[in-house]
Amino acid sequence: MKPSYRELEISIGYRFKKKALLELAVTHPSFRYENEETEDDNQRLEYLGDAVLSLIAAEHLFNNNPDSREGDMSKLRSRLTQDRKLAQIGATIGVSKFLRLGVGERKNGGAQRASNLADAVEAIIGAAWIDGGARAANKIFKTVFLPELGELEETPVKSNPKGELQEHAQSGGHGIPEYETIETGGLEHERVFTVEVKACGKSWKAQAGSKREAERLAALKAFEELNRPKPEA
């Protein structure tokens, strides 16, 4: 017996005509790998949803912020659509309860894994676009994303650790920080990147699900240590 997705549909503010699309949107690759009768997973929908969400967010910001500059709107859109925010949204709407995961992935906490939640949210947007076009995707955006956008507009943009590290290094007469991916591990659908940054004669490492995030975390470690107050003699 297939699960009812009515609770999830209520959370996102849209009722799917084709329930199979919503089911596909919450189907993790690990589930497909372990079930021969399952022919597809949510990766293609995630790809589509990423583009659709970016477009809808851009249109909303353009129409509702006539005095904002391009750079300001781009930063706000990026904050709304970044994986960390998408994962928070996924948790809020209860996606984890409906994720179709492989046995191993579920045992390893896959239902709460941030990347899985973020991917599913994007896939749901993509599925809604196919199911009901722009109107459907916009309904979900207004229900789920607009409240988050309102909070982001009232919250100052967080610092850019890579930019701050570079400025710190150059101001001290050092070269530009160098980033290197020294290890790539994890399963095919759940990569983990280890990045090392060298700056000011030292090095720091960090891990994340993407190279960009690993670089950001490594830069944050470096910047915080380099700016830590030295104990008085």
Comma- or semicolon-separated keywords:
Ribonuclease iii, N-terminal Endonuclease Domain, Chain A, 3-stranded antiparallel β-sheet, 2 domains, 233 residues, single chain
Report on this model:
The chain is mainly alpha-helical and 233 residues long. It has two domains: 6-154, Ribonuclease iii, N-terminal Endonuclease Domain, Chain A; 161-226, Double Stranded RNA Binding Domain. The protein has helices at 6-12, 19-25, 29-34, 43-64, 70-81, 83-92, 103-107, 114-154, 161-171, 211-226; strands at 178-187, 190-199, 202-208. Strand 2 (190-199) and strand 3 (202-208) form a beta hairpin. The longest helix has 41 residues, at 114-154. The model has no long low-confidence stretch (mean pLDDT 89).
Task: Write the topology of this structure.
Blueprint: H1 6-12, H2 19-25, H3 29-34, H4 43-64, H5 70-81, H6 83-92, H7 103-107, H8 114-154, H9 161-171, E1 178-187, E2 190-199, E3 202-208, H10 211-226
Antiparallel strand pairs: 1-2, 2-3
Helix pairs in contact: 2-8, 4-5, 4-8, 6-8, 9-10
